[in-house]
Amino acid sequence: MRLSERITQITGGGSDGWDVFYRARRMLSEGQAVTELTIGEHDTRTDPSILRAMELSARNGHTGYAMVPGTDLLRDTVAARVQTRTGVPTFRNNVLITPGGQAALFAAHMAVCDPGDVGLYLDPYYATYPGTIRGVGAVARAVQTPADDAFQPQAERIDAAAEGAVSLLINTPNNPTGVVYSRQSLGAVADVCKRRDLWLISDEVYDTQVWDGEHLSPRALPDMAERTLVVGSMSKSHAMTGSRCGWVVGPEEVIAHLINLATHTTYGVPGFVQDASSFALTAGVELEEKIAAPFRRRRSLAMDILASQNIVGLVPAQGAMYLMLDIRATGMSGDAFANALLDAHKIAVMPGESFGKAAAGHIRVAMTVADERFAVALKTLCEFASHLARKHAAE
């Protein structure tokens, strides 16, 4: 029996670039001691206060079908939060609650892409981006943001790729690079979107993890609210990755159609999870800062360690829970280096090539293990890179 091309071509065929991650997981399952610095999973669990709110809601009976668009309480809470942070008037009818940020990404592309349309995304990219675009039947087209441009988007590159495109997907603070897009970069992106009549899909799930500079939502730029869909999530800001609660914020007409989509697909998010999310979002910045604190602290540790050597380069670590490290001085690709590091020291990192061509010769390090273990792993990584660089120079 034939399967649809939409489902069989989601990954584009071949490896998805995550072979090192899968190998590390196999080693762990075999009982080997691997320091895993791969995926963006908090090493602390959801805060007990959020779990208590979730339990109270469930025990009080909010375990049946919840409203498909999201509860009025959570939609109002998200709208108020977005309006406070951006200054853009935002109301309940501008918000759809989704089962996590990934479902929000899919829904946003379903809203604006017809089969055969081109959806643009920036490279380096979060692993699911091209598959999400393919999954709605669109053509995924990468736009390079090279290391030489500090991984900041450039208007001329987007414009050159925009023929036939209907949407552009961006992510700031950025996974995998840790770069926060500047106001100048986002202004240039907005200008291209308006000139080329593109929908802008802005993934802002790391907006509470900004270490340098400030987060700017492009929805707040002039004449952009009408063509921007913002994706948000409880996963990173409140360590609720498994609770699967996210949202899309956009024009009321778009949200009305996405509610119809949700009725025919996910049919909403559990009410007790939404109630816990409402509690978390109104618990104050202290809770968000508590959850972000380990990554801020480990970034500082990493900067001190990396400053003591000159082989491994650090891409400006402005936000999110990752470091993007330049290991080109070793003469190796990111993939080769990551595999060699795993073999030699049982330290697992992600090759830059896992996230696209623009990150070749780099590795991504997730700051997701305890401070001391993280520092030891990073020092070992630097020593290993120095050894490889000396060997490369001698050849």
From TrEMBL:
<dbReference type="Pfam" id="PF00155">
    <property type="entry name" value="Aminotran_1_2"/>
</dbReference>
<feature type="domain" description="Aminotransferase class I/classII large">
    <location>
        <begin position="34"/>
        <end position="379"/>
    </location>
</feature>
<keyword id="KW-0808">Transferase</keyword>
<keyword id="KW-0032">Aminotransferase</keyword>
<dbReference type="InterPro" id="IPR050596">
    <property type="entry name" value="AspAT/PAT-like"/>
</dbReference>
<dbReference type="InterPro" id="IPR015424">
    <property type="entry name" value="PyrdxlP-dep_Trfase"/>
</dbReference>
<dbReference type="InterPro" id="IPR015421">
    <property type="entry name" value="PyrdxlP-dep_Trfase_major"/>
</dbReference>
<protein>
    <recommendedName>
        <fullName>aspartate transaminase</fullName>
        <ecNumber>2.6.1.1</ecNumber>
    </recommendedName>
</protein>
<dbReference type="GO" id="GO:0008483">
    <property type="term" value="F:transaminase activity"/>
</dbReference>
<comment type="similarity">
    <text>Belongs to the class-I pyridoxal-phosphate-dependent aminotransferase family.</text>
</comment>
<dbReference type="InterPro" id="IPR004839">
    <property type="entry name" value="Aminotransferase_I/II_large"/>
</dbReference>
<keyword id="KW-0663">Pyridoxal phosphate</keyword>
